[in-house]
Amino acid sequence: MAKPRLLVTGFSSFPGARRNPTEVLVTALDVKRMARRFDIDLAATILPTEYAAVSDLLPWLWKDVRPDAAIHFGLHGRARTVRIETRAANHATPVRPDAAGKRLATLVIEPRGPLYRRTTLPAEKIVVVLRRAGIPATLSADAGGYLCNYATWVSLMAAGGKKGRAGGLAGFVHVPWPAEERAPNAPTGRPGWGALALAMETVVAAGARAVRMRSQGRAG
After folding, report:
1. What are the positions of the active site (predicted)?
2. Hey, which residues are catalytic here?
3. pLDDT of 35-69, one tens digit each?
């Protein structure tokens, strides 16, 4: 098969996080080195933490980059571990403004859509490989009610297959505040910057493996 093509995204700052760790981590990715190491094509970008931008940019990225898998990273301010999300919920929190000061005008993302959309990366296996690498990781079935959940839903919709062709894989990873950072309400015992950078590379490698296994008709 051709090299797996992966898209990695982080989020920009937003109210409550002037410096979003995922923006720092994704920006610092050595894309060329990782592409060589994992024998993949890799693209990385930062999503504005804005509903309108995510609505426009994510579908465009799926069409432009044409990834076999998209892995989105976001901040969970009260997490202690790396959280691998297993689903997105068809709901939003209109009371919380995005980075542009805008709110969603509806309580649902897709009016006629299902209650949930399951992420399509092998979440359980990603947790296993993260733990083997010494990184605290857990499964999560709650991506929240803000842009992380919203982006996951939009990406899963954009990844859908058409005309008998299988769609791409899509998943979301929540990271905690790095241990070196002071943040209100953040628990103790969090991994540091180095561990989170390793986590990001580990998840990318797992995503590439999932794409290869899928092309062989095997579970990733």
Report:
1. 148
2. 148
3. 999 999 999 999 999 999 999 999 999 999 999 99
